[in-house]
Design brief:
- This protein has 6 helices and 7 strands, in the order αβαββαβαββαβα.
- The protein is of the alpha+beta class and 181 residues long.
- The protein folds into 2 domains: 77 residues, Orthogonal Bundle (Arc Repressor Mutant, subunit A), CATH 1.10.10.10; 71 residues, 2-Layer Sandwich (Alpha-Beta Plaits), CATH 3.30.70.240.
- α1 crosses α2 and α3 runs antiparallel to α5.
- The radius of gyration is 21 Å and the shape is elongated.
Amino acid sequence: MKKKVFRFKTLKQFSEQARLLSFVGRGGGDGVWVGLKASGPARSRQRFSLALSRLVLKKMLEVKRDEDLIKAKLTKLGVIEFLKLELVLAEELPKGFICLVVFDIPEKFSALRNLVRWFLKENCFFPLQKSVWISPFDMTEILKRLFKIWEIEKWVRVYVICEDGIPKGCGVNREWKEIIS
């Protein structure tokens, strides 16, 4: 088999797996069984079946069969992978707003700190400082869920902020001097 054909087939398999993960993740989220049924021509049913079995082998999905319906739910690993897919599809924030991630992970967990930095860099974040990162994409809810699964939410905060301070028309009508006094 030629390399290009192999790459294309591999890419199709990954896209089918991503579609399945996304469908189950949006349909039920954490720990909810979602009904799946292969449809269409034999070739697409075969791709569906192959993708399903690969996700089960990777321990991202649990599957059970009820008569002619297949039910699937995400495992913890599957939820993490689903959230990573959601990060890729995150919408850009309106002009002037940014997603801010601030973390203060203890020194004894320095490997974890480096992992968080690497993860943020891989997902379109830019460092302002070593533990302050920004992105133009709205990833707040996804990151909060992901950090909760990783059990590091006590050390990490995620915000959407306005680059110019408090935006006009957001309910704060006083000047800064009035707020201090």
